[in-house]
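Co-fold these.
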Amino acid sequence: MNRTIAMKSGDDGYMQELKGSTEYTGVHPQKFALWLGMASMTMFFAALTSALILKKGDFKSWENFRLPSIFMASTAVIIGVSIAMHAALISYRRAKFAAFRWLFALGFVLAFAFLLMQWLGFRALADMGFPLTGNIAGQFVYLMAIVHGAHIAIALLVTAIVLILAIRARRDPLYELKDVINPKRKLHMELLVTFWHYIDIVWIYLYLFLYFNYR
Amino acid sequence: MSAHTTTTADVHGHVDTDHIHGHDHHHEPTWMETYIFSTDHKTIAKQFLITGMFWGIVGGLLSVLFRLQLGWPNDTFPFLETFLGKWAEGGKISNEFYLAMVTMHGTILVFFVLTGGLSGTFANLLIPYQIGARDMASGFINMLSYWFFFAASIVLFTSFFVQTGPASGGWTAYPPLNGMRDIAINKGSGLGFDLWALAMTFFIISSLLGGLNYVATILNLRTKGMGMMKLPLTIWAFMFTAILGILSFPALLAGVALLEFDRLLGTSFYLNMIVVNGHLLDYRGGSPILFQHLFWFLGHPEVYIIILPAMGIVSEVLSVHSRKPIFGYRAMVVSIMAIVVISFLVWAHHMFVTGLNPNLAAVFVLFTLLIAVPSAIKVFNWIGTIWKGSIRLTVPMLFAIGFVSMFISGGLTGLMLGNSPIDIQLHDTYFVVAHFHIVMGVAAFFGMFAGVYHWFPRFYGRFMNDTLGYIHFYVTLIGGYAIFFPMHFMTGLPRRYYTFANFETFNNFNFLTQFISVAAIVVFLAQLIFVVNFFYSIFKGRKVDVERTEGEHTYGNPWEGTTLEWTAPIERIHGNWAGEIPSVYRWPYDYSVNDKPYISQNTPLAPGEVEHT
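Predicted complex below.
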């Protein structure tokens, strides 16, 4: 098969051909690119946390600061997001589309709830006397939650599109009766869920980082 | 809908038409898909190159304008008022606009020309061609990469037209000047800086998307037989450049994010106890040094992001045009890796005067001097490559040799500046300006020009005009030295000053300053020759000689090179090769071996021939 055409459809034939004719790492190039992207984002968050460490060294009013407990709850919720998304992916792979839709929607709702809780966390911070423009210790919490939230928002947007397409497609008997999945869609689903896991882990890291730095 | 649909329907209820039609499906790209929103790496490379050339002209023009001010601080140039309006009232460039021009010159040249224009162009053109791939791992992401670059360009260019002018706090964007949207501090810290930050954010996204694709493609889509140690050095350079960008650009993004938090949301990550017009502002606890750390954590690797692709191009060009295998291939690869690793450990050598702990400074001195070792190995190998070669002094070859010359000249002063005791004396003087312009400005341009002249036949199936090329080279080489060499002797003269007229002690530099300004104008004009030559040659250049014709395609090897890009048809076709992608059997530098002038990488080993390792 002509590789250009195979590349467009992104089917398994493409992977088969890669294995047959190229020097190759064994990972789909787009998955590989996502991993590199995650390495890049890791550097971004590492830069932010390094900045905090640098500032903490020369600033004394750090001691009075406590992290609002709502962030612990939001961390629990984001773990729930990962679990739901993963379960959705498993259902998808097994062509159990009804279960997939419900789990995927659950993940979406939980992620949305997470963002809401982050916002409640900001309210709690402000009530404690740490508005956005206040103490620098508090500013770092806002900063990390906002830039992390921006990543969540992008993932939510993509998830919303996929969810709408999946809901719209449920009346189409073709796929549910035949139990077939386009490998390209499967790949995209895997990429999306991998990104959810990644961005969830990043928050857990940020939470633990903040928790231990603000004790 | 045919019976095929059952095999391709998916959860979305979509039917993948490409798949259904299978082998005989051929989608004719529309004009839009071919020239504008193209996913073809060759078109994207051209888009990067031409956008880079546009920025090169803008950035160069800015330097001509501020050299007018520096060379003739007491004269007026009425034509400037015609073009610049209130920025040059009475024909005299205003203080604010001078600073804005210096800032934008740096930003444009460093990021938009020598990163976007250089990496974007050649990584896109050469990676699929030289590794034997139909295209990048993701053509779509590649297209996004260009269009983010384009968006960044539009935003940055727009900032020239806002009322308070473009950013003017230096290309390094240090927060004391840019941390507040208060135009009382400097006009450019108003809307101009926000646009700068937005443009840089788009630029970083573009760079990251491009980088992910380059690495994923190189590691996953090499043709059969193309082991890593059979890759041309260009590809090694592009891969490590991309890795460097992927790991260091996020730090700048973080730095800019904090800066915009300070500017737009009123936080004080970088600001502390600021007094404006006698009023103490509310900012507490921030530190501008934090920004410097985040900035230079990208900023130093950035110079290698600029120079590594040029090094890769030069390695290839020197070998091809001296008809000799590259000297020390493995050492070249290892040096690139060493440069990448060490470049992450030298950033604070830009910060010796910030009150950095001298013991800490010593560590950065050590690594800074250490990075000279792999750089010197590369220089040695380039000279070793052309040593006793049958050198063809073509235009690309001259530019490659010019690169080595510039890299040595600029590198030597790097050794001096790398020492903190010397750097503290020379910090922010013209000595530093001379150093980095030669080693990463002019040198990188030479690498880029070598690449453009060398691969122009791959881009357009034609050569660039030689005579114009030679004029371009000699004027640029002599002019480049004429501009920057005298700066080494302008000891103590601080950079970025609008005028030195108030300092009698600097009067003895008046002649040199004027001399440099004249040279800068001449060199700028010589670049216009290049631009004319480029566009003229696209349509009227000498065509590449056709060696053979197969089917509807013609083949030729304009420089008698061994690498795979010359095994593809002269016509630039979608998917690069008409039939099967060639397999690779040998390393890319088999010149003048086995009594042959060159042996292409896709030529199987002769019986009894030992593979180069």
